[in-house]
Amino acid sequence: MAALLARLCRGARVLRAVRLTLAAAPPPRRLAPTGPPRPLSFSAAELVRSAPGRVQPYLRLMRLHQPAGTWLLYLPCTWSIGLAAEPGCLPDWYTLSLFGAGAVLMRGAGCTINDMWDQDYDKKVARTASRPLAAGDISTFQSFVFLGGQLSLALCVLLCLNYYSIVLGAASLSLVVTYPLMKRITYWPQLVLGLAFNWGALLGWSAIKGSCEWSVCLPLYLAGVMWTLVYDTIYAHQDKRDDVLIGVKSTALQFNEDTKQWLSGFSVAMLLGLCMAGMNCNQTFPYYSAVAAVGAHLAHQIYTLDIDRPEDCWKKFTSNRTVGVLLFVGIMLGNLWKGQDSKKEEEPLENSSACSPRCMMSLKTVIQ
Q: Is 159 in contact with 166 (CB distance < 8 Å)?
């Protein structure tokens, strides 16, 4: 009997403890009504985030989440391909596609090489500390193997071109490899980047024509180099404080408060180069209108630039894609206009040739 009473008392204590626990517990939360499904985003950054976790570091290493640099590498190629098109014709879309694939691969390879050289520096800079190599997401060996894969695919693209273009394209590899070292040696690494990034201005023409027409290609190439000095100097102003601390050089540090004057000079040189290239391949009104629009865009960029605000520098840097697209559209329209002009020139010749038999018949009648 005593044992039974003890068990009942113990059960009562357990029930009391459970009751107190339930009383102290917070009331159950209602689930908030779910809103409309999130719309799909096809931005490059969103696509990289949605990739498998093991793949993401490699995609970030080749900067697929930041496509602005790929555009800036690709657009000089489109200019050259467009200028090489026959009058009245659009650029060759197959060649444009090949160069687009090549731009993605070579920009990725360049970024991989840059990060392999700079991983110790990147750890000390807030903006670059999260890069895959600096953050330890992948090893140097893994990035080296990945670099080999990118260069192999880029070689496959290059081998689709003619022999002249294959040799010309291979010659640019030395610039791609040595550019990251230049920031340790000179305050003008942006110049070396411009020489590498605008190689497509030579390669695009040779891919269409079989060789370079230097009176067109060289001014176009130099215009592209000046353009790179503009946008990459703006880009370098984002990191100038960190660059001073770790001993990295750039045109942003070289020009300092005189940056806008230098950028204005580079812009004028770019416009002169574009005009010279246009004159040497008989470009027309739409082309020069686009060059004027490019000049206005650059002037607005430089006038409104705040070199002490990194977010403004990034905004101005990415806006240069618009500059390149404007010029490409002008080239296409200029070629179509050129085709109309050539048709007008041919019509009088056809009319005169059509009159020739009549004139001959008249002469025969007079002679008889």
A: yes
Q: Let me know how long the chain is.
A: 368
Write the burial class of residue 160 (CB in 10 Å: 0-12 exposed, 13-18 middle, 19+ buried). middle
Burial class (CB in 10 A: 0-12, 13-18, 19+), 364: exposed
Backbone angles phi, psi at 34, to 5 degrees: -75, 140
Task: Look up residue 227 and give its two tokens.
Answer: 């353009």
- Angle of helix 140-158 relative to helix 163-170, nearest 10 degrees? 160
Q: What is the structure's pLDDT at 126? A: 81
Q: Which two tokens stand for residue 184?
A: 């340790």
7-41 per-position pLDDT tens digit: 545 655 655 654 555 455 454 444 444 444 445 45
Contact indicator for 342, 284 with CB cutoff of 8 Å: no
Element (H, E) at 143: helix 140-158
Question: For the whole model, what pTM was predicted?
Answer: 0.82
Question: Which one-letter DSSP state was computed for residue 51?
Answer: S
Structure tokens at 270: 């770019």
Non-local CB neighbours of 279 within 8 Å, separated by 6+ positions? none
Say if CB 225 and CB 191 are below 8 A apart. yes
Is 221 in a helix, a strand, or coil?
Answer: helix
Model confidence pLDDT, tens digit, residues 50-65: 889 899 999 999 999 9
Among 260, 334, 337, which residue's Cα sits nearest to residue 292? 334
What tokens were used for 155?
């070689």
Q: Which two tokens stand for residue 263?
A: 């950028």
Rounded Cα gap, residues 179 and 294, in angstroms? 27
Q: Which residues of the chain have pLDDT under 70?
A: 1-42, 341-368
